Amino acid sequence: MTSVITPPPAVAGRRRSRSQLRGRPVESEALAEIQQLLADSPPQRDLLLEYLHDLNDHVGYLALRHLRALAEWMRLPMAEVYETATFYAHFTLVRDGETPPAALTVRVCDSLSCQLAGAETLRAGLAEGLDPAEVRVVRAPCMGRCDSAPVAEVGHYHLGQASVAGVKAAIAAGHVHADPATSLDYPSLEAYRAMGGYGLLDALRAGEVAIDDLAKMIEQAGLRGLGGAGFPTFRKWGFVRAEAGPRYCVINADEGEPGTFKDRYHLEREPHTFLEGALASAHVIDAEGLYIYLRDEYPTLGLALRECITELEVAGVVASGFIHLRRGAGAYICGEESALIESLEGKPGKPRQRPPFVAQCGLFGRPTLVNNVETVYWIARLHREGIESYVNVGRHGRQGLRSFSLSGRVMRPGMYLAPAGITLNELVEEYGGGMAAGHRLLAYLPGGASGGILPASKADIPLDFDTLQAHGCFIGSAAVMVLSDQDDLVAAARNLMTFFMDESCGQCTPCRVGTQQMLAALSSDQWDETLLTRLSQVMVDASICGLGQAAPNPVLGLLKDFRGELAARGVQLIASTGAPAAMRGDA
């Protein structure tokens, strides 16, 4: 397998001479700065996000003068560079004549688990207690640390159970950078080898384990996509292998579902187990390259994975340049596989129309295998430990193990490896230490923000794939968020819909306008039930991807199972005869 990745022909064909580039003239000084910053880097289109990160980190923001210079250096239209730079939340754009932001940014997570833990009070306290000329305080979506809510990010340094005093102390101590040496403890390559690590990869390369036999083992184990879709892993392998090469392997490490942090947990503790499974998957489809798309909220993991990849390259386990570690830029939508592919190609992360599917036409227009971190993590473990310990576990007629991200009103939030089919009551009591003191179970989200919401009366439903659909929910990435009788379900619904509205890529009207109108409908004390249900149906039927299709789930759950709680919170449900504006065409 070659490690040389060439840009797709369409990229080369789009280049034009400098004299043909239009727009404002490029400042020679800005161009010189770009050339110095990226001196040893190739001007490949698919590296645009990486270069925007380099520039944003180096300067602290993206100035238009630098974007024009970057477009010139990469031989790209300024419109494409600008569109990409403005799509992602973690890039700060400063237009001509605008005052640059403060040198340090503090982000406060405002997703549901952090909201329950007092994130708004924390954000307000920081905004009042820090000098805005020196520190910018902004709200941010889920950072994948819901077990330690509320969470704040100081520069690139994350604080769990954050407080105003704790953030101020971190700033005073200069703790603004990620540092895996002080926070992560994982086996080195040598230690992992001593435990039998990379035995599967060695056996595959030596022909001692046939690809078909490995696929059969994966099928018998019942391993499915654990990023949320639950598609059988062996079947996805088969689809990609059936397509003519060259092919690519992509790992989705961009878990952005509010309440989800299982992938972070596995990567922090066993990065080589993950890498072996990823490399085995790449071998199965004879991939030309392995791309790992890591969410930008995990900077410590980025450093750790680069260290592990270097170990593999130095030891000759993998050819230099075969593994490409790419950095996301703050876009929940990039968890959708085709949007992830677009982002890897250096574009805004907008989902593609299907067909064709990414298994047929993915990265650089070639057949692409996209798997979740936890999915490939299990591949190496199942081969090394045998599938018996996996398949013989399960409850209530289910099979296997699931990584549950448990947060909210429980005594011990955390990531728990528990039997598939466990109920919410069992998960909370046996793993979470019971409900938090003084709290009584009111509701729970079994699959993060998009997985719907269920009442305490349905806390004995087995949690697994295909067990929750009859109740209007799904397990997704097994992000379980627990709410109590002391929580405001109306505020929770508004929090979730605000998240979906903010994270919509804006490409399709049902999602872009639907989330806006639904949030507006939730903002008063009178909820138009007819409008909400009809608008939900439009979003489910007509949205391009799962974001718009799943966004109404929490609202529909409240209308179905929590009418009494809504009334107690002063919400009056009314029925109208008017169609949603999105359906009338006047949105």
Report the span from N to C terminus: 51 Å
Number of helices: 27
Main sheet summary: 5 strands, mixed
Percent in strands: 5-15%
Oligomer state equals single chain
* Extended strand count: 17
Query: What sort of overall outline do the alpha carbons produce when their principal axes are compared?
Result: globular
Rg: 24 Å
The low-pLDDT segments are 1-21, 582-587
> How are the strands of the biggest sheet laid out side by side?
12-11-15-13-14
Q: Overall mean pLDDT score?
A: 93
What is the helical fraction, as a range of percent?
Answer: 40-55%
Structural class: alpha/beta
Care to give the gist of this entry?
This protein is an alpha/beta fold.
